[in-house]
Amino acid sequence: MKKSKTNWKVLILCLIIVYLVALIGSIFTSLNTSTDWYNSVRPSITPPNWVFPIVWNILFFLIACSLYLAWINSKNKDKSKLAWVFGINFFLNILWSVLYFGLKNPLLSFFELILLEASIVGMILITKKISKKSSYLLWPYLIWVAFAGILNFLSAF
Q1: Is the pLDDT of residue 93 over 60?
Q2: Among residues 24, 38, 20, which one has the least CA distance to residue 100?
Q3: Is pLDDT of 4 > 80?
Q4: 52, 79, 117, 135: which has the fewest C-beta neighbours closer than 10 Å?
């Protein structure tokens, strides 16, 4: 069995891109999790605030690893497809934070979250054709966003 070498430049770039998405989203989120508004719409089943940065940091690390594995194992013709599906997901991930916490609009953010969830499914399906490991790394993200969808639904309706 051939042992593959880590492409450190690509891995670091994937980490930077993904954590930049996390940083941008956190600008809208972190300033609003202790506000009266959030406490008024926060469902009772919501985990404590300290849980979210831990879970999201793990998820973003898994997303970066997924992107890395898919990228290094893809053919050149698949790289633009990967860039699009991950890019759309990153945009939707940030947009949810803007809509929910920035604009304080749980209803609109709930419908946007459905698109976010669909983009994760798209990521899983596209990466599965390239690297099964890459697609498996995205399942926790899908599950967590589904749970976030329940919380978002409860706060909107």
Answers
A1: yes
A2: 38
A3: no
A4: 79
